[in-house]
From TrEMBL:
It is an enzyme of class 3 (hydrolase). Its EC number is 3.4.21.-. Belongs to the peptidase S49 family. The gene is sppA. This is Putative signal peptide peptidase sppA. The chain crosses the membrane at residues 20-40. InterPro entries: ClpP/crotonase-like_dom_sf, Peptidase_S49, S49_SppA_C.
Length: 350
């Protein structure tokens, strides 16, 4: 009887192990098939970094045209600038790839910036603007911007690269300014509850604006100088590229206020505050001297989730889970203490 019970146990355990191994094998197989399907179903690749997507023209046509047909490159400026999905490096990749692969032989005759953004980091906004201006000058193509919701702060900075800015009749335009912070000081609270800390530094003001001690007068002077420089550059860019805006009026009257599109047109921020996507695209096609059937294309960078899986950066494979405290609902933790061309009223609410 003892032998019989042992045999039944071993048999059941073996069956369990076989079933578990079978389920694991099926899971691995499904993952492999899924990855292969993703790569097999990709649209035409322009390079190993971007994928070409066919977008609708002004008449709503999305038919694939011959490689000899002229093309308009649509670049989406959607969301916060300086994030993983929208930054200078990605834009530069799109611009480089627009001269290669299926778009080589000077197919791209114009760029349409489709904007719906509150801005973001100073560095990315400036580098994106400069890349677009350099592209326009090198290849002699017009750039138009179409605002579909919001063109504020850093997005306005980037839009200044366009020959013409058009907007739908609703939305937000403006916010020419720079912000850093908020910075908190908890030294009084620490003293109240008897909490102390020590920070080891070398170099005067290395622990500038430390939240754990009372702040010294003038220790933020260098940061204020940086903000002043970034603001001066912003106002220079706007007044240079939007000639109907007087720089002194921009600084002393308009400030970092935001405006509805009709008012923004009146002040000179944009050229047309009552446009549509089709109208803006049609105007760009005319400006680019395109008189035949044309293709509107977008160059998409692979989705970050797919990139994480391929590069092994997903928590599923790396086993790493990032925990962070959001100090304010309006600002990313990695943006703390960085100059921002960002429209975010919550940052300045008293």
């Amino acid at each position: 009887m003892n032998i019989t019970r042992e045999s039944i146990f071993i048999s059941a355990f073996r069956t369990f192990c076989n079933s578990l191994a079978g389920m694991f094998g099926i899971l691995v197989g499904l993952i492999i098939i899924g990855v292969l399907f993703i790569f097999a179903s990709k649209p035409a690749m322009v390079s190993d970094k971007t994928t070409m997507i066919i977008a609708a023209d002004a008449d709503g046509n999305r038919s694939l045209l011959p490689d000899s047909s002229p093309a308009i490159l649509r670049i989406n400026i959607h969301g916060e600038i300086g994030t993983r999905d929208l930054n200078a490096k990605l834009l530069q990749t799109q611009l480089l790839d627009s001269r290669e692969g299926a778009l080589k032989h000077n197919r791209v005759k114009g760029i349409l910036l489709h904007i719906n953004s509150p801005g973001g980091t100073v560095d990315d906004a400036n580098n994106m603007y400069m890349s677009l201006v350099a592209y326009k000058e090198k290849y002699k193509v017009p750039i138009y911007a179409y605002v579909d919701g919001m063109c504020a702060s850093g997005a306005m900075y980037i839009a200044c690269s366009a020959d013409k800015i058009l907007s739908n009749p609703t939305g937000i335009v403006g916010s020419v300014g720079v912000i850093m912070g908020p910075n908190f000081n908890v030294s009084g609270l620490m003293e109240k509850y008897g909490v102390s800390q020590v920070t080891l530094t070398q170099g005067k003001d290395k622990d500038m604006l430390s939240p754990y001690r009372p702040w010294k007068p003038g220790e933020d002077d260098s940061l204020k100088a940086i903000l002043a420089y970034d603001y001066e550059r912003f106002t220079d860019i706007v007044s240079k590229n939007r000639p109907r805006i007087n720089k002194q009026k921009l600084i002393n009257e308009y400030g970092a206020q935001v405006f509805d599109p009709p008012k923004a047109q009146e002040l000179g921020y944009i050229d047309d505050g009552d446009s549509s996507y089709s109208s803006a695209l049609s105007e760009l096609v005319t400006q680019a001297k395109i008189d035949t059937a044309y293709q509107v294309v977008e160059l998409k960078v692979p989705h970050p989730i797919l990139s994480d899986l391929i590069e092994g950066q997903s928590p599923l494979f790396s086993g790493k889970i990032k925990h962070e405290i959001q100090l304010t609902p309006a600002l990313k933790s990695e943006w703390m203490n960085r100059p921002l061309y960002l429209y975010s009223p919550a940052l300045t609410t008293n």
